[in-house]
Amino acid sequence: MDTPTPVPHIPRPYQIGSLAQGDPFHSVLASFADEFETEAERRTGDLIDARIALLCAGNEEPARSRGEYAIELLTFGILRSEYAAMAQATSDTTLHRMADLWRVRSTEPDRKTAADQERGRIFLGILHRSWEQRPDPAPDDARLARWLDATGEFVQESQRMRTWLNGHEAFWSTEEFVAATSGFAAWFEERAKSVLGRWTGGVDEFRRRVLDSDTPREDLFLVTRTERLYHLNMLGSEVMNRGFRPGYDSRPRKIVLVPGCMRARDDKSCQARRDGLDIVCTRCHPSCEVAALDRLGEEKGFGVRVVPHASTFTAWLEHWSRAPDTALVAAACPLHLVPGGYEMRALGLEAQCVLLEFSGCKRHWDPSGTPTRLDRNRLLELVA
Ligand code: SF4
Question: Least crowded by CB within 10 Å, which of 93, 176, 199, 374?
Fold first, then answer.
């Protein structure tokens, strides 16, 4: 189970083009982010005011933009709609087992394979039940956060959800909070589908084939995300880039982080060298996208590093927090953008993010392992 077998011959869930090809994705996304921020103030401005007041009263955490708080509230509403019924119907025993298995796979490498096999079986059982979402004015959001945490796929999101659940009693009732966040999610789903749907047309078919394959994969809660979760992360990347921008601009050294799936060669053949915790491209392959970015960085004044595997990812990310002159530009597929932004904030990092044009890694998305790429013009806009 360490390397789940992807479903063969399935469509890409999403695909965006490049500025050079005239793809309007980024300008459409920017306009939608403007609309979102206006709508967020109308629907959740009071909640955000209260949250900031709570922080001013002594809760210490890195400052965020109002747009970032709005993304957190939208995420809350969408995850409630997606998963609250599953969380409610999962027995306490299973919930505890899920949490335990996530801990084991994260901390005990020798037991990771067995833990992932069991997680895959549990997840498949949950996803194969038919779920009927019923509006509930007082859902158990604390249980939802625990359940999301236990899947291992929403660790960052569940941490942010808890910050909204703690200490709010003087400011809003549960019913008010649920009505605001669920209403926001319903508005978003419809608008995002009409604005961004042309770039995510493969999501439903991808999900259907994964579920029809009946395979107990540990990444099931990643590869079965619905279209609105792609849209949430796409929008979140734009809104978070705006929130992070002042801090990013304040740091002179820029490093672009690229995923291993961008390489022209696999792990064994890639000649990248280790430099402490960093992985640095040696340009061993003439048409490797990472090498092209490395050359571009040499010309434009930024560095490039390959992101290591998940097992060392957190330690690796933390080491950047000891480089106060450095800001990061992280390239990733959309489902990792919002949680990645939360993690960057938690670590006090300054960053921008750029979306890969499609998902291509063998592990989750593409049996043939097509090397991924990003829009270099968009990268140059962000890295400046
Ligand atoms: S060009 Fe760089 S990233 Fe690509 S395979 Fe070679 S060393 Fe690895």
Answer: 93
Residue 279 bridge partners (DSSP): 274
Closest ligand 1 atom to the C-alpha of 306? 3
pLDDT in tens, 37-94: 999 999 999 999 988 887 777 667 778 999 999 999 999 999 999 999 999 999 999 9
State which ligand 1 atom lies nearest to the alpha carbon of 269.
5
- Looking at domain 250-383, its CATH architecture is 3-Layer(aba) Sandwich (3.40)
List, in order, residues 6 or more apart from 264 with CB less than 8 Å away: 285, 287, 288, 289, 290, 291, 371
Protein residue with its CA nearest to atom 1 in ligand 1 = 283
Residue 133 pLDDT class (50, 70, 90 cuts): low
The number of beta carbons lying within 10 Å of the beta carbon of residue 93 is 8
CA-CA distance, 154 to 186, in Å (whole number)? Answer: 21
